[in-house]
């Protein structure tokens, strides 16, 4: 059996795939990918700086391969992400007037969404537009256009492919203040008659938090808006958080921890007790997902296996993290078994 088979009547099971996985230079990962998952997200290759590096230059080679891989394997295909202040192409950072910026967003969305019309099923249209307190982030887009850029992006995407599902995607969406911000954002779009189909909760979580209750309250709040919820970037870090140890003073100076063994307690292999903790955490999370399966479209892991995870380098470089269901040797972990056991009793 597999994840995708086990949850086929509940929600899609996805994974973010890296450049080398798209290019199939990593064949073992692709074996696991195809067996276990029925949805894919490109971890980096459709971000603005990658796909639209200059005003008049689009780079579609990798994105085309990505879409072909998904089609060949009958997968749900996610586009990530149309409008995000991070990993934005440098030429866009230089645009300082709203009319030019709107034209550039229009060209960006029309060109990309139309190219993959009927092939890409779901778009992360706007990514990370909110601050932790739920107010709008003063990103480059916001500074130039105010919040108009959000409505513009959704409108353009809906016109370019009326059948694609359109998602607002962000992290820490379990937080009550940020949750209120999402509710305001979605309601405002709806009041303007603009199509939005889903909220994407990124789900970069840890063994300790967020609480199941906070996650559940967000699922219910978003579902009450009439949109579907996707968990778009699920992983569970097992490593110590520098903020917890040293408080706010740490700020951005993570370099000081780079070779600190305290910060990298499982350099070879995750301990048995941590394996058990991770398995329990994933079990609790998936129990919640199953409880609300009528509200949830998709659960996507941010990577296929631990070796691929961005958490090996964030916020401290060079650590050995173990946040996913498959280990570095592509072996299913105890957490994989605990998730499957929920369906195969
Ligand atoms: O490809 C270059 C390589 O040529 C270069 O030698 C190397 C040196 O730094 O960098 C490589 O690019 C890196 C890229 O990942 C591919 O590995 C970038 O530096 C690095 O910044 C980038 O990190 C990605 C990050 O987004 C950027 O913000 C992570 O892989 C990716 O997992 C992460 O994903 C984001 C989601 O898109 C949005 N939500 C949060 C999530 C985690 O941060």
Chart the SSEs and their pairings.
Blueprint: H1 3-6, E1 12-17, H2 19-22, H3 27-36, E2 39-42, H4 48-51, H5 61-72, E3 76-83, H6 90-93, H7 98-115, E4 122-127, H8 140-145, H9 148-160, E5 165-170, H10 176-191, E6 198-201, E7 204-206, H11 212-223, E8 228-237, H12 242-246, H13 272-291, E9 296-301, H14 334-341
Parallel strand pairs: 1-2, 1-9, 2-3, 3-4, 4-5, 5-6, 6-8, 7-8, 8-9
Helix pairs in contact: 7-9, 10-11, 13-14
Explain the overall architecture.
By secondary structure, the protein is α/β, with parallel strands linked by helices. The protein has a single domain (3-341), classed as Glycosidases (TIM Barrel, Alpha-Beta Barrel). It has helices spanning 3-6, 19-22, 27-36, 48-51, 61-72, 90-93, 98-115, 140-145, 148-160, 176-191, 212-223, 242-246, 272-291, 334-341, and strands at 12-17, 39-42, 76-83, 122-127, 165-170, 198-201, 204-206, 228-237, 296-301. The chain has an 8-stranded parallel β-barrel, surrounded by 5 helices. β7, α11 and β8 (228-237) form a beta-alpha-beta unit. The two termini are 12 Å apart. The mean pLDDT is 95. Bound molecules: ligand G3I. The site of ligand G3I has 7 residues, from loops.
């Amino acid at each position: 059996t597999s994840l995708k088979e086990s949850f086929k009547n509940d929600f899609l099971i996805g994974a973010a795939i890296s450049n080398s996985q798209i290019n199939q230079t990593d064949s073992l990962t692709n074996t696991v990918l195809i067996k276990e998952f029925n949805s894919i997200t490109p971890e980096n290759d459709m971000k603005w700086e990658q796909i639209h590096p200059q005003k008049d230059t689009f780079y579609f080679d990798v994105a085309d391969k990505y879409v072909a891989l998904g089609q060949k394997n009958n997968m749900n295909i996610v586009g990530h992400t149309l409008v995000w202040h991070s990993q934005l192409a440098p030429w866009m950072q230089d645009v300082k007037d709203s009319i030019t910026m709107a034209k550039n967003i229009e060209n960006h969305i029309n060109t990309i969404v139309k190219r993959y019309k009927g092939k890409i099923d779901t778009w992360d249209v706007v990514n990370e537009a909110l601050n932790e307190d739920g107010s709008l982030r003063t990103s480059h887009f916001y500074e130039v256009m105010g919040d108009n850029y959000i409505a513009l992006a959704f409108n353009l995407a809906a016109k370019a492919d009326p059948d694609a599902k359109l998602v607002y995607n962000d992290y820490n969406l379990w937080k009550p203040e940020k949750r209120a911000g999402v509710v305001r954002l979605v309601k405002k779009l709806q009041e303007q008659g603009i199509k939005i189909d889903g909220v994407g909760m990124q789900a970069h979580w840890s063994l300790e938090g967020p609480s199941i209750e906070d996650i559940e309250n967000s699922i219910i709040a978003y579902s009450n808006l009439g949109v579907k919820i996707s968990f778009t970037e699920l992983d569970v870090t097992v490593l110590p958080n520098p903020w917890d140890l040293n408080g706010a003073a740490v700020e951005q100076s993570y370099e000081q921890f780079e070779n600190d063994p305290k910060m990298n307690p499982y350099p070879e292999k995750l301990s048995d007790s941590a394996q058990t903790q991770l398995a329990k955490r994933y079990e609790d999370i998936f129990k919640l997902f199953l409880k609300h399966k009528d509200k949830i479209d998709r659960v996507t892991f941010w990577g296929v296996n631990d070796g691929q995870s961005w958490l090996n380098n964030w916020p401290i470089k060079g650590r050995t993290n173990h946040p996913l269901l498959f280990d570095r040797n592509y072996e299913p972990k105890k957490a994989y078994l605990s998730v499957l056991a929920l369906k195969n009793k």
